[in-house]
Amino acid sequence: MEPDKRDSLVDFVIYLVALTGVTFKKILHDLRLHPAKFYDWKKRYGKVNEHNRLVPRDHWLEPEEVRAVVAFFHEHPDVGYRRLTYMMLDTEVVAVSPSTTYNVLKRAGLMGRREPVKSSKGKGFDHPEAPHQHWHIDITYLNIAGTFYYMCSVLDGFSRAIIHWEIREKMKAQDVEIILQRAKEAAPEARPRIISDNGPQFVARDFKEFVRISGMTHVRTSPYYPQSNGKQERFHKTLKAECIRPKTPLSLSEARTTVAAFVQEYNTKRLHSAIGYITPADKLAGRAARIFARRERLLTEARQRRKEKRAARQAA
């Protein structure tokens, strides 16, 4: 409603109340006017309608920032919008929130519609509060040029960092002990809780004795419930999907070289969603708080720059 008509109606209602002595509630009911709307009009009496005007906000992006987001997406088309956001933030391409990145890409027609996937995983073990409290160990098969090999890796539950891994032609309890010992050599002060499934290598008497002598403890997941070791299961799934299958190594030595490069990138470059989109190496080294603080500072500075630019354009 136009301001003059709105104010006239407010005056009319007040006049009727004063003239008849009937309550506002009764008159508004007879006029079929909702009380909330009337009192909102009364509060804005004499003011121009501005409540529906698009008022620029500090989080609104500049056109060049929108172009930067879209260009960065085209450079990394296989990366999800959340990881993309923090990659842009850490490299200072543009400082935005994940929801802003999503909206920009959606308006540009770059966000495909995905059906939500319901997880069958439970909570598993409580998340550790420091590095080297939980080490997840697991064995998986790798199909390399038609031959199956065993890969065993040790993952730190706090940081998701891969402490040690090996690919072998066989994987008995003694092999697992060697791999675990080499992981301990990479972190000599660690006395972790070893979390594994119920594979024959992990229930062997010699393995139990090795864990005890090494000053560690061991717990096995519930039978037929691999989700309890989900952190390690997820890493092996990612390894196969993003490394082994696309690169198709043709020999054991080539597979070891390929996996070594992938693990290096996984630990030091790939932003992990479960730890706040930082790298496992940064989490392991205790740099998480500093990275989060820097991101928050960059976002605050970006909002301030947009506010100043908008104010300058309005003043010109």
Estimate the helix proportion, in percent: 40-55%
In spatial order, strands of the major sheet run 3-2-1-4-5
The CATH homologous superfamily of the largest domain is named Ribonuclease H-like superfamily/Ribonuclease H
What's the average pLDDT? 88
Oligomer: single chain
> What count of helical segments does DSSP give?
13
Shape: elongated
- What is the CATH class name of the largest domain? Alpha Beta
> How widely separated are the two ends?
32 Å
Instruction: Tell me the structural class.
Output: alpha/beta
Give a verbal description of the structure.
- GO terms for molecular function: nucleic acid binding.
- Pfam families: rve, rve_2.
- Residues 127-288 form the Integrase catalytic domain.
- This is IS3 family transposase.
- The protein is α/β, with parallel strands linked by helices and 316 residues long.
- The chain has 3 domains: 3-43; 63-110 and 287-315, no CATH class; 134-275, Ribonuclease H-like superfamily/Ribonuclease H (Nucleotidyltransferase, domain 5), CATH 3.30.420.10.
- It has helices spanning 3-20, 24-30, 35-43, 63-75, 81-90, 98-107, 173-186, 200-203, 205-213, 230-247, 252-268, 280-284, 288-315; strands spanning 134-144, 147-156, 162-168, 193-196, 217-220.
- Helix 5 (81-90) packs across helix 6 (98-107) and helix 7 runs parallel beside helix 9.
